[in-house]
Amino acid sequence: MNALLESAQSLKSSSANLGAMQLSELSRKLEVFGNDAEIAQASLLLDQFETEFERARDALGEEFSRLQASQTDDWSLMQAKRVFAVKL
Predict the structure, then answer these.
(1) Is-above-0.85 flag for pTM?
(2) Would you state the torsion angle of the CA atoms of residues 84, 13, 11, 86, taken in this order, to the nearest 10 degrees?
(3) What is the pLDDT of residues 5-47, one digit of tens each?
(4) Which letter does DSSP use for residue 84 in this model?
(5) Is residue 78 within 8 Å of residue 48, measured between CB atoms?
(6) DSSP string spanning 14-71?
(7) Residues 6 or more apart from 44 whose CB is under 8 A from it?
């Protein structure tokens, strides 16, 4: 249960920082279920969570590609490079 709780907390903040608010909200719900030790409830969200994660990953990938294509080394591109240092 600790792994679920820790992962949900981390994903909640990280996804909100990236603007993936639906993913952040699902992470918040998983965090609540983790706090309440409700594994069955948490498992019901996993398909929705996976779908939203893939949507956020795709949107971030498109933005990264757009920034790379602009050949601008501005602050946004530097931030995108940091985000995508780990393959999503």
Answers:
(1) no
(2) 10
(3) 788 888 898 888 888 899 999 999 988 888 777 888 888 888 8
(4) T
(5) no
(6) HHHHTT-HHHHHHHHHHHHHHHTT-HHHHHHHHHHHHHHHHHHHHHHHHHHHHHHHTT
(7) none
